[in-house]
Amino acid sequence: MNSLERFIATIERKPVDRPAAWLGMPDHKAIPALCKEYGVNDYHELKLACGDDFYSVEVPYHSENATEIYAAFDWYRDGSNVDAEHRTLTADGCFKDAEEPEDLDFFEWPDPVKYIDVEECRRRVEAAPKGKAVIGMMWSAHFQDTCAAFGMQTCLMNMLVNPEIVHAVNDKIIDFYLKANEIFYEATKGKLHAVLIGNDVGSQRDLMISPACVEEFVASGARKLVDQAHSYGLKVIYHSCGSIVPAIPSLIKAGVDAIHPIQALAAGMDPANLKEKFDGQISFCGGVDTQDLLVNGTPEQVRDKVKELRTYFPTGLIVSPSHEAIMDDIPPVNIRALFEEAERIY
Binning pLDDT at 50, 70 and 90, where does residue 78 land? Predict the structure, then answer.
């Protein structure tokens, strides 16, 4: 099997020669050490050398306020590019005092047509080697953006006392992502195989909001984004950190193909529990703990975890770190061990 065949079989829970494996999206601080471990020069070469079955592609988005699509909205109205290091959902957003839909009219909603380079979309996807599963990192984190637009505390209160205003903001954000994604999908038609979208709704112990709120404010938007991706023949991997077991049924109903990342130490996210509750209903991605094991464990302990995951999921699991961003506190030898064990043919 090549990487693409292995990925499709995994998503469809059909027999595979060995698990598909994904490096994720390493933090920029982690890339130099990983490149040194594999004896390569850059991130592109790293993805090829480590045995990654995927080739991940970010949406090229550049506006006056943002250099990444996940920071497209200037919720603080200060013209700054809210990068990953400084991004927050808890600070008061510009809609903190909004109560009626007309209170949103002052905000200048970005138009993705102006800020997505179609030719760069094509170039990035065409850089993928033949046979790899090409995955677009769409994010489309509409619920997280909605939380940032109000400030999380205000948003969560409004979900209960003024849901109409939350829906009004959420709907505008979803419309933005549907339009942005269409640009990317049209530009890369026939060359893209999967997308990752998602919203963080879990804490270490449980959901941050009720299952009913997940259904109303998260899964309803996910359904629109999933339907759009499926209309282009794309598989959808849905991301949420944390303990999200009670939300998984809603994501299954929304049509999601795989859940990412199996945050290994979060309550209920152990492979045995997921296998028991959802076997045959959905695939998974992740499982190799980035909170403790990959940071503090030995290569042999990492190999043992991969072996364990393979016993629970002979198919239906993409072996990957339990967070999409490998940080620089993870020894590169442990990443090598993850891939070497995942790639073994038993």
Answer: confident
